[in-house]
Amino acid sequence: MLTNKSLKLKLIGALFAVVSLSYAMGETSPMESVPTGITCKVIDNTGTAHVLQNCNCDGRTYISVKRGSLSYFVDLGSVKSIDVRAFKTNEVLAYLKTTANPEGSLVSISKDTICYGMGSFGNAKFYVKNIKDFYIVKP
To answer: Contact at 8 Å (CB) between 45 and 132?
Structure first.
């Protein structure tokens, strides 16, 4: 027979297990917080502009792009703009301009790349597949 004390301990243990499992399976925070010092302006697919502080993609200060058969890791601080041009099955075709390549080049970016930043409403999260344009705002 269970006593009140043993029943309480079992309930607390079960509650702890459920909370731990939920924490392990879901997102641990609303954004990947990385103090990058990079400010970006994002135009989403509805045409709404968002200015975000401490921009990063997948928790990193660079974005992974592909040009031809090579992969490049482009420092966000060197990005002038990313203009989304077309959508494919698993990637987004975008025109990337950087300080080293101001004329720009057509690159592909995984459509599931997640970028983060801090905006006027709080922490922001967006997928590359949901934006039209991405600009780095120079101080």
So the answer is: yes
